[in-house]
Design a protein that fits this description.
The complex is a heterotrimer of chains A (417), B (273) and C (444). Chain A has 417 residues and is an alpha/beta fold. Chain A folds into two domains: 206 residues, 3-Layer(aba) Sandwich (Rossmann fold); 181 residues, Rossmann fold (3-Layer(aba) Sandwich). Chain A has 14 helices and 13 strands. Chain A has a seven-stranded mixed sheet, with helices on both faces. The radius of gyration of chain A is 25 Å and the shape is globular. Chain B has a domain of 187 residues: P-loop containing nucleotide triphosphate hydrolases (Rossmann fold). Chain B has a six-stranded mixed sheet with strand order 6-7-8-3-9-10, with helices on both faces. Chain B has a four-stranded antiparallel sheet with strand order 2-1-4-5, covered by helices on one side. In chain B, helix 6 runs parallel beside helix 7. Chain B is globular. The two termini of chain B are 15 Å apart. The longest helix of chain C is centred in the last third of the chain and has 33 residues. The chains are: A alpha/beta (417), B alpha/beta (273), C mainly alpha (444). The interface between A and C is large, with 71 and 92 residues. The complex binds adenosine-5'-triphosphate and magnesium ion. Magnesium ion (MG) binds next to helix 2 of chain B.
């Protein structure tokens, strides 16, 4: 029996032997040097607010692109948690790379399809193919840390896209500014209160899942600082501000579960029928409150609600006069920002502070270090600018939206679909 | 059972002391009486053919000796002592080996591995002592003049039917066994292979082993058997030296349980009912 | 009684070709030429051994080398990646082979192993238990062994089909894994990427590199010892007149073994870093770990009484039973060893991933494990297979995975290609079985 075992071992070895010879003949020509940048410079004046839906800012990067060397590998996490990665991120990233002068062999975009092992092996492949920069959206913090470590140990720069990674020292984070998202909600709410003529607003706040999600805390800090002048959350009832607002209640929605938010508001509205203005952390929670209000016979433009994510549901509620607006985070901004940071790193340079404008710190309970962050400013979408933003970007389909709300409502907002 | 009745049942012609005696063994399965006061004696250096029609009880009797079934009544006497054989292991310990009709060989193992299955030799460190097993297997096969296998390291799957039978027999005689029971060893074999197995049976006898062969093939029976025992519906209707039978009488015992035309009066007197 | 030496056992009688075809060429041949001829006869008759999988590996490697950008497949760093990515498949396949040899299957392997890995990763966390890495590994593997032994007991004592028992085990272990993940303050995502020394040891199982000088020395010692031992064994057997392969074949095998070792160490000693400031060289620790598992399980299966009984039960359970083998004991032990080896595989997975998370897909991993074992040459019908098959099959699946990653194809394509490779493998298995049974039927 033993003799057979050896023979199989040996046969397997033959393959590896062939591999070794081929490798030796092919030579090792990894092109990922990242230390030389030539004379190219970072486009002057580039900042987080430089990007728009024309992608024109990216064309200023072409000389920097040609000065850089190596592949930029992009790894998106899945196709199931959100369709955004397939529908928006991949095409916008491709467009940003191409406009910045990348040839198709200079960048590679993969999707890990929800498998963390695949996300890591994609990173390994990219580095083998000569990647000097990795842009990855970690499926979870476990694999995020590992990709960062693996890249760092191979001398490859990293950009943590949309979800932060806190290991390492220069793990650049590219995303939207969550605090800014909250501030836009607060400002939009105040405008709405005056335009819907709400006198002596009695405000109820329905926060996101602050129990599990650190981002939910940032959102609340944003809108509380605008409305009440404090970054505490949640606030205690009875708080007032100089414009005559009174806080009736402020509750978090455990785990962002909409059904729970709906129950919370229903009970509060029953206990406090004087509530005439509300703040919600996203469109799903806004819709939960709108459902309660409609059940209570409240008509449009009577009780303001707010949100973020620019969902179809949110856009319907806005056009129907039940929601003031929603924070829209255009993915093309994120894509261009990521490509800009990656291009600078690929040329061996350090991104300027106008672009990497902030830091992100590990939330409570998460180990790691603060990381440099490029935080983009989102947009507040109302009926007035919906056609120029969400609809124009085809983030929400005009046809579907107009089918839902009716052609007349749609055309009143200047939307044809 | 008294010594007197035993003596009465002992054939006068028996040349040697019996190795194994089955005395008045009964076996029933629920209402089915498979064996009824069966007597049988097996002597060293003798091949005993056990004949009988389908369902006569040959396999049940074999299994009682091999320790797979326990008799309901009667006794099994081994070298003069009454024994209780409760398992195939007990039987092996006494020196009784059975070659089953289905041979019980693992196709994926080679000849040596099959011959030593369940009784592997180990060397220091608990690893298998392949060399010593291979040597012993080669010795046994050579002793039985089994020389047609290409290599004793070939898997049993690659052997012919006769070769497999040889391996199964060699496996049975390896263990200093004194009695080898073979259930229909030639049933599936061609002419050449049958001859090979019958030669093997003779060689076992020449070594002084007691051999019991179950067979439906009267050619084989008369070719190899020294004694013939015939079961009919669970009763031992005849046992005597082969020379006392002819084809016709055996068939008659097998099909009717008795003999209409008594030729020499011998076998009829041995009828156990 | 004839003399042992001239027993004439190898004296060749004219036999039908089919018989010659199934005799392993190594034992039927006296010279290298005879060996090669016997080998080709056997392959033509359908019993192809590891040839298909080796051929498959060559084809996969060459195709990916030709179509990947920069012809990256054979780059030293990619070969190291390939081994790291295949290691989990290899070990899980070696685990599954224990039960495939019995003609059984273990569907729970992935999640049971994952539970063990989560236990291990949890125990080394500095902020909670802060166990030494070896203690954590032992407890993790013990967990798997107990789980496997329980499944094996139910299967062998209550005679419930292993498919159903391990399907239940799959669900239970999946749930247990989620519970174990949520223990402690890590919200389900526990990491090994930290400065904790014990966590670092676990992470270095996959990515830690052995210093080139040390690897060359170890390689030299291992090759000298193994080569010497094989030569000694062969000469000894030759002297005793036992069955031996042609001597030139023995020498070729030893040289091949040494060549493979040198190739692997040489490949691993090319700098894999992309920066002038960092150097990544050396044999990754996972290579000796997988080799260790391979050697230990090969010795257990080929050289011990337990291993012999595993093959006997898989080949003919009734024969084994009559030979006094306790079937429940062997079956239970096999399921136990299967789960425990699964634990080793999933600890390597955790090392690869730098932790554990609920994104671990144990269901898919177990299917890949079965596929790797079968592709490597292990029969689904029991009785035929070796630990080495798991390594070869794991390399095939890892190779597909790796090559698809290089050319930017996604997992959909990987699933489809793996599926076709698996169909090819089981067809070869079925064909060689049919050829074998047709051959033996003709001979009876
Ligand atoms: N385990 C059992 N349970 C019930 N009845 C049995 C059992 N084994 C045998 N018998 C019965 O005992 C009788 C004798 O059976 P046995 O197998 O000994 O026949 P046999 O002489 O070997 O026949 P054959 O030549 O067909 O092999 C039959 O009637 C059979 O049905
Ligand atoms: Mg019978």
């Amino acid at each position: 029996m033993r003799s057979i075992r050896i023979s199989r071992f040996a046969q397997a070895g033959a393959v590896l032997g062939v591999a070794a010879v081929a490798a030796a003949c092919g030579g090792n020509s990894n092109g990922g040097g990242s230390s030389s940048s030539g004379s190219a410079t970072i486009p002057s004046g580039v900042s987080v607010s430089s990007f728009d839906n024309t992608f024109s800012e990216m064309s200023k990067f072409t000389s920097l692109t040609s000065a850089g060397r190596g592949l930029v590998g992009v790894i998106l996490p899945d196709t199931t948690s959100s369709t955004r990665y397939v529908d928006f991120d991949a095409p916008y990233l491709t467009k940003a790379f191409q406009t910045a002068g990348y040839s198709s062999s200079d960048f590679k975009i993969d999707n890990a399809q929800g498998s963390d092992a695949t996300e890591l092996s994609d990173a390994q492949s990219d580095i083998t193919l000569g990647a000097s920069v990795l842009v990855f959206d970690p499926l979870d913090s476990t694999v995020g840390s590992q990709i960062q470590q693996y890249a760092a140990s191979h001398g490859v720069a990293v950009v943590s896209y949309d979800r932060a990674t806190f290991t390492g020292s220069n793990t650049y984070y590219v995303s939207f500014n969550n605090m800014q998202v909250g501030k836009l909600i607060g400002q939009g709410f105040q405008q709405c209160v005056s335009s819907w003529n709400i006198s002596s607003p009695h405000v109820f706040e329905l926060d996101g899942g602050e129990d599990t999600d650190p981002n939910a805390v940032s959102f609340a800090q944003g809108y509380n600082s605008v409305i009440w002048g404090t970054t505490n959350t949640p606030l205690s009832a009875g708080m007032t501000n100089s414009s005559g607002y009174t806080l009736v209640g402020d509750q978090i929605t455990p785990g962002w579960v909409n059904a729970q938010g709906q129950t919370i508001f229903q009970q509060q509205y029953t206990a406090h029928p004087d509530i005439n203005a509300t703040v919600e952390a996203n469109d799903g929670l806004a819709n939960a409150v709108v459902t309660d209000l409609k059940n209570a016979g409240v008509g449009p433009k009577k009780v303001p609600t707010t949100g973020q994510d620019a969902t179809l549901q949110g856009m319907e509620n806005i056009l129907n006069g039940y929601q003031c607006g929603s924070v829209y985070k255009p993915i093309y901004l994120e894509a261009q920002d990521a490509v800009a940071v990656a291009t600078i790193l690929r040329a061996g340079l350090t991104p300027p502070s106008a672009l990497v404008n902030s830091t992100t710190t590990p939330p409570h309970g998460v180990s790691g270090n603060p990381q440099p962050a490029s935080l983009l400013t989102p947009t507040w979408v109302t009926a007035q600018n919906m056609n120029d933003t969400v609809i124009k970007d085809q983030f929400v389909s005009a046809t579907t939206l107009c089918n839902a709300v009716g052609a007349s409502v749609c055309s009143a907002a200047g939307i044809s679909g | 059972m008294s010594d007197a009745s035993l003596a009465a049942a002992t054939p006068a012609a028996a040349p040697v002391q019996p190795l194994l005696e089955v005395r008045d063994v009964d076996k029933h399965f629920g209402p089915v009486q498979a064996l009824y006061k069966v007597n049988l004696r097996l002597t060293p250096g003798h091949v005993t053919a056990l004949c009988g029609d389908n369902g006569a009880g040959k396999s049940v009797l074999t299994k009682c000796i091999a320790g797979i079934h326990q008799p309901d009544g009667g006794a099994i006497v081994w070298q003069g002592n009454t024994v209780h054989i409760r398992s195939p292991r007990d039987a092996s310990r006494l020196g009784i080996e059975t070659v089953y009709q289905d041979l019980a060989l693992a196709d994926n193992l080679d000849i040596v591995q099959n011959m030593f299955l369940g009784r592997e030799r180990l060397r220091m460190g608990g690893l298998l002592d392949e060399d010593s097993m291979e040597r012993a297997a080669a010795e046994t096969l050579a002793g039985l003049r089994v020389t047609t296998v290409r290599s004793i390291r070939q898997p049993v799957a690659s052997l012919s039917g006769g070769q497999r039978q040889s391996v199964a027999v060699a496996k049975a005689v390896m263990w200093n066994s004194k009695l080898v029971i073979m259930d229909e060893p030639t049933a599936a074999l061609g002419v050449v292979q049958t001859r090979m197995v019958l030669d093997l049976v003779r060689r076992l006898r020449d070594r002084g082993l007691a051999v019991m062969v179950i067979s439906h093939n009267l050619n084989d029976v008369f070719e190899v058997a020294d004694d013939i025992a015939i079961l009919y519906l669970g009763r031992m209707v005849a046992q005597d030296s082969a020379s006392k039978f002819d084809r016709q009488s055996v068939v008659q015992y097998m099909t009717t349980g008795g003999q209409l035309r008594v030729t020499d009066g011998g076998p009829a007197s041995k009828t156990a009912n | 009684m004839a003399d042992v030496k001239d027993a004439g056992l190898v004296e060749v009688q004219p036999e039908p070709a089919a018989v010659a075809a199934e005799v392993p060429p190594a034992i039927a041949a006296q010279t290298l030429g005879q060996y090669l001829r016997a080998w080709s006869v056997r392959i033509r008759s359908g019993d192809s051994g590891v040839l298909p999988v080796v051929l498959g590996l060559v084809i996969i490697s060459v195709v990916f080398e030709l179509i990947s950008p920069r012809n990256a497949f054979f780059l030293p760093e990619n070969l190291v990646n390939l081994f790291q990515q295949s290691a989990v498949f290899m070990v899980l396949a070696m685990a599954e082979i224990f039960v495939l040899l019995l003609g059984e299957i273990d569907l729970s392997l992935g999640y049971v192993g994952a539970c063990g890995a989560v236990v291990t990763v949890q125990l080394v966390q500095g902020v909670t238990t802060n166990w030494p890495w070896w203690g954590a590994i032992i407890v993790g593997l013990l967990f798997c062994a107990v789980f496997g032994a329980l499944q094996g007991t139910i299967i062998s004592r209550l005679h419930v089909p292993s498919f159903v028992v391990t399907l239940a085990g799959f669900l239970i272990a999946n749930g247990l894994m989620l519970i174990l993940l949520l223990l402690g303050p890590f919200s389900g995502y526990i990491t090994l990427v930290s400065s904790q020394p014990n966590a670092n040891v676990l992470r270095n199982l996959m990515f830690g590199n052995i210093d080139p000088t040390i690897s060359w020395i170890v390689l030299a010692i291992v090759v000298a010892l193994l080569g010497g031992w094989f030569l000694y064994r062969d000469l000894n057997r030759r002297r005793s007149g036992l069955v031996v392969p042609p001597f030139s074949l023995v020498v070729i095998r030893i040289l091949l073994m040494a060549g493979v070792g040198v190739a692997v160490v040489a490949i691993c000693d090319v700098d894999r870093s992309h920066s002038l400031l960092i150097h990544v060289v050396g044999v990754p620790a996972v290579i000796p770990i997988v080799l260790g598992v391979l050697v230990v399980w090969t010795v257990l299966l080929q050289r011990t009484r337990f291993g012999r009984y595993v093959y006997a039960v898989g080949g003919n359970a009734e024969a084994a039973r009559r030979a006094g083998v306790s079937l429940p004991r062997i079956r239970t032990l096999c399921f136990m060893l299967c789960s425990m080896t699964g634990g080793i595989g999933m600890i390597l997975y955790a090392s690869y991933l730098g932790g554990m998370s609920n994104n671990v897909n144990g269901g898919q991993l177990v299917l890949f494990a079965v596929a790797a074992a079968v592709i490597g040459g292990t029969s689904l019908f029991g009785g035929r297979g070796k630990a080495m098959h798991g390594v070869l099959g794991g390399l095939v699946i890892g190779g597909i995975y790796n090559g698809m990653g290089l050319i930017g194809l996604q997992v959909q394509a990987e699933f489809i290609v793996t599926g076709f490779v698996l169909i090819a493998a089981v067809s070869i298995d079925a064909l060689s079985r049919r050829a074998a049974s047709a051959g033996s039927a003709a001979r009876v």
